[in-house]
């Protein structure tokens, strides 16, 4: 289906105005485990002066990264922007920053020593990817994964992938239940985000009221967010069952309560999300953004939008650093996103004319529709039959199947995954195993041999200094080689392993790095 430039603009304006409205409505109730009774803003002096919100701040940082790097933006690039321009060091933000500063890269930076890896800090920033890839959840979900890998993992990442897929699909589909099912198709069926969303849908279909559904959600998929302000004497047995920091599933379930029980009404939906308590600005912000996309900016009731008038205030962005450009309004943010959509989409889909230019309009976009909006199963062979090779970029199927601990990089003619045998810690005289996997990209049209050399720091020794592997271009062919390193002596608290890959007879060359923390004789764990 075709989406015109004006339609895109209307929906992106609606998305971020809805996000701003939902975040402002929920801000005073964040962190409280209680049932609220909210029907409108409760803050004073917010006319054209909404409270700043990290949910929107972080996405502005990502937009600046996209404006410089376009479609090539990935977790490592976003991590550089994170360290340069973002202030907060709390919860998952702080854990991710500490890991990055120590030398760990995404996706490991979001996974290790991070109690909050399943929390809400990444699903709140899904809108930027949905709006840069409108009507293409298969693209938006990939960038959502890279985004989340900076400071989240597992259900924290599944949460952002779900939200980005739902919001991207909303540019081409307006039915809430269909959108929810599209989002579910992009995440594992057995993850907690999927469990929470399916539970809410089942309760709604079974005729339960929203308060009963909330109670069931808190019982079966408990979160810990609202417990921060709840006195211990008021904790229930279910509260003690909640895993600290595992809050994305519960709060996404709350957002779905608002969307289903809100009956399509913008104000009712965001108020219900806030009235469930917990991370209220996040759940209402997601619901408001989604409905803003579906209805467009004109579909948001003026009583909600006129108060804020599209003004953006920030609190988490370090503007003392050079090279950052801050939009002051949702209108300015929208214009910058619209300018970047063509360069963001076209490189990945050059064979399909997503962007059409004409005299009457700046451009229009070809969006997926119907079944095309759902994630194509990994097992479907026919989708790739015409070329029998892999994409240059990891698609969402590949990303969701990556090993628990790994490094992954995309080069011009191949993709590389360096899999860790376990969490990245090594003790003296201990062996640590790796598996290098190489996948031919669609640029390379003939088989090659890859020469690989392994370089280690002074304290490490490898059992395989160099080796060669055949790199075929046949369907889903993966070249594999195992090797290991041993810690022979202490030279520092961190040790790097450099894997250098070159294709015989070509100039193609790539480097992928692993980092291990040196542990003492005590047991260490990944979490």
Could you describe the 3D structure shown?
The protein has 18 helices and 13 strands. With 527 residues, it is α+β, with helices and mostly antiparallel strands. The longest helix is centred in the N-terminal third of the chain and has 22 residues. About 2% of the residues have low confidence.
- The count of β-strands is 13
Estimate the global geometry from the Cα principal axes: globular
Pick out the low-confidence regions.
Answer: 381-389
First-to-last CA distance: 45 Å
Mean pLDDT: 90
Most strands sheet:
5 strands, antiparallel
Strand order of the largest sheet: 4-5-7-11-9
Q: What proportion of the residues form beta strands (DSSP E)?
A: 15-25%
Structural class: alpha+beta
What is the helical fraction, as a range of percent? Answer: 25-40%
Radius of gyration: 23 Å
- Give the number of helices: 18
Sum up the structure in keywords.
five-stranded mixed beta sheet, 39% helix, alpha+beta, five-stranded antiparallel beta sheet, 18 helices, 527 residues, globular
Question: In short, what is this structure?
Answer:
Helices cover 39% and strands 15% of the residues.
Detail the topology: elements first, then pairings:
Layout: E1 2-4, H1 5-26, H2 54-69, H3 75-85, H4 91-102, H5 108-111, H6 127-132, H7 137-148, H8 154-169, H9 176-185, H10 192-205, H11 210-220, H12 237-241, H13 248-261, H14 266-275, H15 280-295, H16 302-308, H17 330-345, E2 355-356, E3 364-366, H18 396-400, E4 406-410, E5 414-420, E6 425-426, E7 431-440, E8 448-456, E9 460-462, E10 466-471, E11 478-487, E12 494-503, E13 509-518
Parallel strand pairs: 6-13
Antiparallel strand pairs: 1-3, 2-3, 4-5, 5-7, 7-11, 8-10, 8-12, 9-11, 12-13
Helix pairs in contact: 1-15, 1-17, 2-3, 2-17, 3-7, 7-8, 8-9, 10-11, 10-13, 11-13, 13-14, 13-15, 14-15
